[in-house]
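Milestone M4 deliverable, item 7.
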Amino acid sequence: MPQRSQNRRAKTSKFYHGRKAEMSFIIARSDLLAPLKEQVDSMMPYLVQVLRDALGSSGKDVRLGNVRCVSSERGWWTKQLKEDIWERGGGGWMVGKVNVGKSSLFESVFPKGRNTDIDFRALRQDAIETGVGAMHHSKSNSQGDRLLNGSNQQGLALWDDVGDLQIESLLPPVPEELAYPVMPIVSALPGTTASPIRLPFGRGRGELIDLPGLDRGGLERFVSDKHKLDLVMRQRIKAEQHVVRPGQSILIGGLIRITPLASDTMLLACPFVPFESHVTNTEKAIAVHTQTSTSGLSNITSVGAGEKMASAGVFQLKWDVTKQRAGPLTASTAVGLKPQILPFAVLSADILIEGCGWVEVAVQVRKKALQNSGDALGSTGESLEFPSVEVFSPEGKHIGVRRPMNAWVTGGHHKAKARPGHARPRRSMKGVKKNLKKLARAALVAV
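Output delivered:
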């Protein structure tokens, strides 16, 4: 990846060992993050920062101007990505985990119909003369057949020097270039793309390669067969906000258990996962999670998975989200107070479940307990203990943490107001006219 530079006119790409390599980070199903495209666009600074955090100590030295949010489901930014692929040319490799939308994105961004200039008048004439159904079976020397079947020898000549497939090569031979080739199969089943799919475009201008998906982490090994497909998030989830009181825990599908460590704080948990979540007392949650007792709670784990449940670690809620969570106190359209003058702070974190989703956890604490903490509130003193939660998962794995996205604020399930409408109710006019007549008669008698 190109390194960052203080010179804004510096080149963003270089040649390494005679080749020019660039890496772009594509967030494929961005429609799962927020309901509107404008809301997803506003998340770009946050997504770039999360990516820097994931890259570790080297993230600060990497130029990340090539992060894109696209959605082949909604058509968000796919046209711009298709034009960039066409302009760049060369080999484009799509690498990602299973069921993240690579094949669907491949179909949306592949530059189709650009290997030659198409004469649509000739195509229509061929359809009239031979019939649409018989176009591929007769008149093989027609211009329409030459275009649709990719018989342009000038374009194919650029690929003649590829030669036979070498033993050490992991890619199949370059196929015949077609204006509208057959796209990869889009399926919810994992492993549909069993081998690399490479399709050339633009008369040898470049090719796009769809690689088989990488392992999602192995969490499906602890899930029953009928619920394995439920691990994949297919549509945006409107998460409900659960209140976890002292002595309680939240169970995520019976697969993950989150328990607050503080005994005097109330936790707010918003699970953005494609299966059910329940809040219950900690003792019952432990029994259900380890499969030592049966319960009516939803449980997607397989038989024997309870013996492998272990602690994945203790995670601190150390990011300040007071401005986003304080409601009308900090809203610019209401009171508009600054978070610095409030006597409390709202701390949060996103607990990540590998290959499934995340749980947004938030807690409200008084600032006096955090006045010496430097990570969340920006002071320079020694850090105190932040509110923490302990997460239990199969084999103590498949769990991570990141700074909060505040997805519940932008697209969560908010309860409807008890009284619809903002205007005051109209005053009842019952008996008003009768009282006016009495006042009028009393005035006449007085006169």
